[in-house]
């Protein structure tokens, strides 16, 4: 059974960089066939797709965040990561990592709340 | 970006009722439409993919239909455990976008 677990600081100061890691168990990122994604959910409940990475390192980002986002993968650790630069209060959200097929988001992590505040 | 609009935003129904939630895309997305269920404090869970395909392990009382711009999710006989918020999502065009959610309450 594939499981994903987010980890990282729950509090980030404005203008700093939000960094999260997703650890995958029950499947190998390097096997291919799936995309490894980040999605966030603002306190008002709206869901926003941030982007994904393939095991080759190929990425696709939401244009609204593209200038501030980097998603990377470490296949040796079976992990992938999110960095979001220059954060503001508007970046406060629950961040989910997930596994996507070509059609849908199949498996979600439990999510981690990141609050941007001084 | 493709805008996804769900209706209603909330609804209340009784156990055993047939419930339908609709989702409209701002442009044609063929059948690239997914439905997710999110229970309070939990991550979303995939129910339906490709507009009408039931994800493995999801009860058969859930069904989806539609193509192009208009889609619907139907629960044939509402159960107490269906208390949740339901989201549609298009996977036709980047960036993938979600509807605003429909909060389902049990009377």
Going by helix content, strand content and strand pairing, the class of chain B is mainly beta
Q: What's the story with the biggest beta sheet of chain A?
A: 7 strands, mixed
Oligomer: heterodimer
Structural class of chain A: mainly beta
Largest sheet, strands/sense/barrel of chain B: 7 strands, mixed
Order of helices and strands of chain A: EEEEEEEEEEE
Number of DSSP-assigned strands of chain A: 11
Instruction: Give the mean pLDDT of chain A.
Output: 96
- Radius of gyration of chain A equals 13 Å
Number of helices of chain A: 0
CA(first)-CA(last) distance of chain B: 36 Å
Strand content of chain B: over 45%
Quickly list its features.
heterodimer, A: 118 residues, mainly beta, 4-stranded antiparallel sheet, 0% helix, globular, B: 7-stranded mixed sheet
Report a brief summary of the structure.
The complex is a heterodimer of chains A (118) and B (107). Chain A is mainly β and 118 residues long.
Secondary-structure blueprint of this entry?
The complex is a heterodimer of chains A (118) and B (107).
Chain A: E1 3-7, E2 11-12, E3 18-25, E4 35-41, E5 47-53, E6 59-61, E7 69-74, E8 79-84, E9 93-100, E10 105-108, E11 112-116
Parallel strand pairs in A: 2-11
Antiparallel strand pairs in A: 1-3, 3-8, 4-5, 4-9, 5-6, 7-8, 9-10, 9-11
Chain B: E1 4-7, E2 10-13, E3 19-25, E4 33-38, E5 45-49, E6 53-54, E7 62-67, E8 70-75, E9 84-90, E10 97-98, E11 102-106
Parallel strand pairs in B: 2-11
Antiparallel strand pairs in B: 1-3, 3-8, 4-5, 4-9, 5-6, 7-8, 9-10, 9-11
Task: Tell me about this structure.
Chain A has 118 residues and is an all-beta fold. Helix content of chain A is 0%, strand content 52%. Chain A has strands spanning 3-7, 11-12, 18-25, 35-41, 47-53, 59-61, 69-74, 79-84, 93-100, 105-108, 112-116. In chain A, a hairpin with a 5-residue loop joins strand 5 (47-53) and strand 6. Chain A starts with a strand and ends with a strand. Chain B has 107 residues and is mostly beta strands. Chain B contains no helices and eleven strands. Chain B has strands at 4-7, 10-13, 19-25, 33-38, 45-49, 53-54, 62-67, 70-75, 84-90, 97-98, 102-106. In chain B, strands 2, 4, 5, 6, 9, 10 and 11 form a seven-stranded mixed beta sheet that branches. In chain B, a hairpin with a 6-residue loop joins strand 4 (33-38) and strand 5. The interface between A and B is medium-sized, with 21 and 23 residues.
């Amino acid at each position: 059974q594939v499981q994903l677990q987010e980890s990282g600081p729950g509090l980030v100061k404005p203008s700093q960089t939000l960094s999260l890691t997703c650890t995958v168990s029950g499947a190998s990122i390097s096997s291919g066939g799936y995309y490894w994604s980040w999605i966030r959910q603002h306190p008002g409940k709206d869901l926003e797709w941030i982007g994904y990475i393939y095991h080759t390192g190929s990425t696709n980002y939401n244009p609204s965040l593209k200038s501030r986002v980097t998603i990377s993968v470490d296949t040796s650790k079976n992990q992938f990561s999110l960095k979001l630069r220059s954060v503001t209060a508007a970046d406060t959200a629950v961040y989910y990592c997930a596994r996507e097929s070509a059609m849908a988001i199949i498996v979600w992590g439990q999510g981690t709340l990141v609050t941007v505040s001084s | 970006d493709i805008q996804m609009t769900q209706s209603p935003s909330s609804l209340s129904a009784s156990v055993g009722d047939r419930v339908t939630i609709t989702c409209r895309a701002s442009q044609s997305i063929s059948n690239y439409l997914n439905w997710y269920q999110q229970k309070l404090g939990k991550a979303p869970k995939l129910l339906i993919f490709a507009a009408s395909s039931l994800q493995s392990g999801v009860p058969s009382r859930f069904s989806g239909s539609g193509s192009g711009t208009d889609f619907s999710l139907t629960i044939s006989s509402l159960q107490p455990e269906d208390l949740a918020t339901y989201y549609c999502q298009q996977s036709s065009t980047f960036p993938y976008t979600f509807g605003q959610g429909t909060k389902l309450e049990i009377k």
